[in-house]
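Why show two proteins at once? Because comparison is the fastest way to build intuition. When a single record is shown, students tend to memorize it. When two are placed side by side, the eye starts asking what differs. So, the first record is below.
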Amino acid sequence: MPRLSYPRRQQRRRLRSAAASGVAGLAAGAFAAIAADVGAITVAGMLVLVMVGLLFRAHHLMRLAGRSRVGARSEDEVRRALAALEAEGWRLRHSLPYRGRGDIDSVAIAPTAIAFAIETKCAARRPVVSPVQPGGTRREVLGSNGLPGSER
């Protein structure tokens, strides 16, 4: 089974944290209702504030998980685009661990033993992939609007 990419692991970690925060927020709300029912209004008010804070945190973590999902999809798109090089003798490695938490997105090793490290970025929250043209000497960079040479 291939190693999960860093953005995919980050997405899962954020989703787990969002779920835990959401459950804790709902529990705080239930305790607030119980406290209000027995007449402890001050405690109920404080628990409502805790509930609101936890639910906002869960919402924030869900948004961050969505951003991580976009990064993971972008890396998957680059993997598919680079796969055509393997038929020409290139060796590809993806999601190589690098100094702690991050990773090297992709490494393409040419038949001549020259290696290229590839860092994947996405523009406007959607992946933009330049067509791979083996044997070419020109490096094409696509900008945020998907056109060559139009980076910001």
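Second record. Ask yourself what differs from the first in the token line.
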Amino acid sequence: MANKLQNIIGSGIPAAPATFISGTGGDLLTATGSTQATALLLPNDNNGFGTVASGTGAILQDGSPGDECFVANFGANALLVYPPIGQSINALSANAGFSIAAAGKACFIKLSATRWATNLSA
């Protein structure tokens, strides 16, 4: 498989904009906190969790409509993903966490200033 970042740079786009286009990734993250205020702020565009204690979670970074964030839960427990403060995911109430089961994956897409949608897979 070709390296996406190297291909973008190879087309003549400088490294910083190329990284912005291709996105960032991180694996073996550890879920933290038991509330929206104490959850781990997702550090990357693509995030893999290796350690998920019961009741812990992560929070999406605020962004602009069209932004996406991928989350994979390789931990032993369900992972709660919270929207930024005052926002919602799917039809959940504002600030409510969205649960990703162990071994589950979800892609979060920001639709508007206050709503995210997700595509969940097992």
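One difference worth noting in the second protein: The beta strands are 25-30, 40-41, 46-51, 57-59, 68-73, 79-82, 88-89, 98-100, 105-110, 115-121.
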